[in-house]
Design a protein that fits this description.
By secondary structure, the chain is of the alpha/beta class. Helix content is 22%, strand content 30%. A hairpin with a 4-residue loop joins strand 1 and strand 2 (28-35). Mean pLDDT is 94; it is low at 1-7. It binds flavin-adenine dinucleotide and FE2/S2 (inorganic) cluster.
C-alpha cells in the first residue's frame, strides 16, 4: 500500500512559477522557475521533467541548472512545435504544472575522482550545463575537465556568458567550434569531432559525457573509442517521443529499454547493440 502511494506520487503535478525568461537565440529561450511553497526539485544532472501546458500538451525538457542551485531550477527550450512554442509565450509570474524529475541522469558518484570529457552539440549543452555547473561547484571532487561545444553557426551558441567564463578558467580545458563561420568569428571551424583528437586524456580514468543531435553520436563514439576510452565510460543521452515520462506507456521504448526510466543517460556498452538507438 505504502509502495503504491510512493509510485503514484511520482505522477504528482507540481505548480511552478516562472521567475525569469530570457531569449538566448532566435529559437531558444531560457527559463528560471521555482516550485510553489518552497519545495526543491532535488534532481540529478541529466534528468528531465514533464512540463504541462494546459489545453496544449505535455513535453519532456531537461533541467539545465545544477542541483546545487536549490531555490529554483532552469530550462532551455527550443521552439519546435505546439507545446514548446506555447512555453515560449510564458512570462515572469505565470504558473505551469510540472511532473518529475524523471529518469537516470549522469552517475555522479561514479564520475567523482575521474577525469571528464564533456561533448555538447547544439541544444545538447542544456542537460550538460547541469553536469558542468555541478562539477564546477564541486571542483575538487573531479579530476581533469575538458568541455567541447559545437554549433552550426556562431549565432546558435547558447549561454555565451558562461562559455566565456569556462574559457577563462585555468582548472578546465574548453574549446568550441562551428560548422559554418560568420564574418566576425575568429574561432575553430569544423564539426565537433575535429576537436577530439587534440584533447590530451588518460583513457582509463576518463568518462565522456556526450549529448547532441542523433547524427553526431556515431562519429563522436568512433573517435572516443579510438582514443581508448572504455565503452562503459562513454555516456550518452537519448531523446525519444514521450507520454508518461515514467515507464508506464511504452512510447519511448527501444527494444527492452524505456528511455524515460532506464535513461535518458546510458553508457555505450548498454546500448551499442540496439540499432534503433541510433
Ligand atoms: C529526455 C528529453 C529531454 C529533452 N530536453 C529538451 C530540452 O532541454 N530543451 C528542448 O527544447 N527540448 C528538449 N527535448 C525535446 C522536446 O521534448 C521536444 O522538442 C518537444 O517534445 C516537442 O514538442 P512540441 O509540442 O513543441 O512539438 P510537436 O508539435 O510535438 O513536434 C514538433 C516536431 O518535433 C518533433 N519532436 C516531438 N517530440 C520530440 C522529442 N521528444 N524529441 C525530438 N523531437 C521531437 C516532432 O516529431 C516534430 O517533428 C527533450 C526531449 C527528451 C525526450
Ligand atoms: S514515456 Fe511512457 S514509458 Fe517512457
Amino acid at each position: 500500500m505504502e509502495k503504491m502511494a510512493l509510485k503514484d506520487s511520482t505522477y504528482r503535478l507540481k505548480k511552478a512559477r516562472v521567475l525569469l525568461t530570457k531569449k538566448l537565440t532566435e529559437n531558444e529561450k531560457f527559463f528560471d522557475l521555482a516550485l510553489k511553497d518552497g519545495e526543491t526539485l532535488d534532481h540529478e544532472p541529466g534528468q528531465f521533467i514533464m512540463i504541462s501546458m494546459p489545453g496544449v500538451g505535455e513535453v519532456p525538457i531537461s533541467i539545465c541548472s545544477s542541483p546545487t542551485k536549490r531555490d529554483s531550477f532552469e530550462l532551455c527550450v527550443r521552439a519546435v512545435g505546439k507545446v514548446t512554442t506555447s512555453l515560449h509565450n510564458l512570462k515572469a509570474g505565470d504558473e505551469i504544472g510540472i511532473r518529475g524529475p524523471y529518469g537516470k541522469g549522469f552517475p555522479i558518484r561514479i564520475l567523482e575522482g575521474n577525469d571528464l570529457l564533456i561533448i555538447a552539440g547544439g541544444l545538447g549543452i542544456a542537460p550538460l550545463r547541469s553536469l558542468i555547473t555541478y562539477v564546477l561547484d564541486n571542483r575538487r571532487d573531479f579530476g581533469k575537465v575538458h568541455i567541447l561545444f559545437g554549433c552550426k553557426e556562431p549565432k546558435d551558441m547558447l549561454f555565451n556568458d558562461e562559455l566565456d567564463t569556462w574559457n577563462a578558467r585555468t582548472d578546465l580545458h574548453y574549446a568550441c567550434t562551428v560548422d559554418r563561420a560568420a564574418p566576425d568569428w575568429a574561432g575553430n571551424v569544423g564539426v565537433i569531432t575535429t576537436l577530439i583528437p587534440g584533447v590530451d586524456i588518460e583513457p582509463s580514468r576518463t568518462f565522456a559525457a556526450v549529448v547532441g543531435p542523433p547524427i553526431m553520436y556515431n562519429f563522436v563514439i568512433k573517435e572516443l573509442l579510438a582514443k581508448g576510452i572504455p565503452e562503459r565510460q562513454v555516456l550518452l543521452s537519448f531523446e525519444r517521443n514521450m507520454k508518461c515520462g515514467n515507464g508506464k506507456c511504452g512510447r519511448c521504448q527501444i527494444q527492452n529499454l524505456y528511455v524515460c526510466q532506464d535513461g535518458p543517460v546510458f553508457n555505450y556498452e548498454q546500448i551499442k547493440n540496439l540499432s534503433e538507438a541510433f
